[in-house]
Amino acid sequence: MAIAAWCLAAILSVPFVWLAVECLAALLPARRRANSAARPRVAVLVPAHNEEAGIASTLRDILPQLAPVDQLLVIADNCADTTAAVARAAGAEVYERRDDVRRGKGYALDFGIRQLTADPPGVLIVIDADTRTQPGTIDALARAVASTGRAAQATNLLEPPAGAGPGARLSAFAFFFRNAIRTRGMDRLGLPCLLYGTGMALPYAALARIDLANGDITEDMRLGIDLAVQGTPPMFVPEAGVRGTLPGGASAATSQRRRWEHGHMATIARTVPRLLVSGLVRPRLLGLALHLGVPPLALLALLGVGGVALFAVLGQWQPAAMLLGAMTAALLGLLMTWAVFARDRLPARDLILLPVYVLRKVPIYLGFIFRRQKAWVRTEREVPAGK
């Protein structure tokens, strides 16, 4: 019993310890990179499904950042609205795709890339149709890819809708913590990052080795892992940035969280063991496995509390203390990075609602066991992007 308790405590402690390491690394000074490469020709690909309300704002951000030789393509994927017409009026090259069986963003991306085969660009940049792109992002991503030959990921954030309550602010902070703080920590450690679907740039030559035509609900995460395994791990470009808005309605927000978190947990189960084995000879993949193996924060908290409670019931106090120490390290790391990077995003008074936020996620995690979401479903938006 004691040996089993120690083994379980060690397994549960690993993601907490690694989370603390990432938080501490995020506090280190930024890494300097030489980025003197000439800017390659760029194609910006915007997959869109029923995005008539916000796509014009998205395209207005992108167009001034393009050179005359660059391309802006919108893939109006299975649209039942005026997305295609709005995109054409805004100045984009538009292709319409209809397929009632092969549905999902991966299929839309594959369709868009095939439109470029006759005259391929040097770099492909993917921007979601509900995303605002900060000035200089296209240039920063293109030059990063050109100078390294690796994929690149911009800082990708979600903001709470106007007038949102503490629940939405906590959700936005969790997104910021994962995409900005933890990714910054991985970058400071010299490790690759994951791709987040929007604000990602890919060397066009690498796309021939990647299968994008799939309905995976975490196609971006899968793409980043595939590139890392093939030897071209994605890199973080913090000076580039894209932003979206969390869904305004409760049901839409829950649907979006369910898709993200079910996809994340399925990717952990499918991918982490393979990366751990590969990491024995390729340390970067080991770091990526540890990063990916940290489950969503609410689930991680539930696992930690449940583990400590189990050890206490069994009278295994030393394993309980070990796990509690790892949990404390992760909590301190989270609080330090919140204090440095996110006090203006999340008021201190909202932190006391973290236990409520965690408990509200329980149905999502139970759903992963009993009714796992496997198909891509667009999140309904009640607030147009950028409004």
At a glance:
With 387 residues, the chain is an alpha/beta fold. The chain is built from 14 helices and 8 strands.
Explain what you see.
52% of the residues lie in helices and 12% in strands. The protein has 387 residues and is α/β, with parallel strands linked by helices. An 8-stranded mixed beta sheet has the order 3-2-1-4-7-6-8-5, sandwiched between helices.
What attributes characterize this protein structure?
alpha/beta, disordered C terminus, 8 strands, Spore Coat Polysaccharide Biosynthesis Protein SpsA, Chain A, 387 residues, globular, eight-stranded mixed beta sheet, 14 helices
What sort of overall outline do the alpha carbons produce when their principal axes are compared? globular
DSSP strand (E) fraction?
5-15%
User: How many helices in DSSP terms?
Assistant: 14
CATH architectural type of the largest domain:
Alpha-Beta Complex
Give the CATH H-level superfamily of the largest domain. Spore Coat Polysaccharide Biosynthesis Protein SpsA, Chain A
Whole-angstrom Rg: 21 Å
Compute the separation of the termini in Å. 57 Å
Q: Which percent bin holds the helix content? A: 40-55%
Q: Which CATH C-level class of the largest domain is it?
A: Alpha Beta
Task: Kindly name the structural category.
Answer: alpha/beta
Mean pLDDT: 87
Largest sheet: 8 strands, mixed
How many domains comprise the coordinates? 2
CATH overall fold name of the largest domain: Spore Coat Polysaccharide Biosynthesis Protein SpsA, Chain A
**Pattern of helices and strands:** HEHEHEHEEHEHEHEHHHHHHH
Number of separate strands? 8
Task: Give me the side-by-side strand order of the main sheet.
Answer: 3-2-1-4-7-6-8-5
Catalogue the unreliable spans: 383-387
